[in-house]
Amino acid sequence: MAHSNQSRKRVRQNEKHRLRNKAVKSALRTFLKKTQVAVEQRKLDDARKLLPLAMKKLDKAAKTRTIHPNTASRNKASLARKVAQLEKELAGTPAE
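-> structure tokens emitted (96 positions)
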């Protein structure tokens, strides 16, 4: 257990940061999954709407170092690639 005032304060701060990071990561994962599901279900409109929101969440999480910036960059590139691939596939099929 923490003994000094300084270490007690550090324990309080760490708990606040842990909860904040947990919330940010949870929201981030939700948007990533929603976007991936939209791509898998071939819903181009939904994927296009969710992609910028997911990228925004990734950027904010990376800015506050909740996740590593390279992880954010890698996830953004992967999502963008999936959406672009879906656009390409659906553009090749005739409109119904």
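Residues 5-92 form a domain with the Methane Monooxygenase Hydroxylase; Chain G, domain 1 fold (CATH 1.20.58.110).
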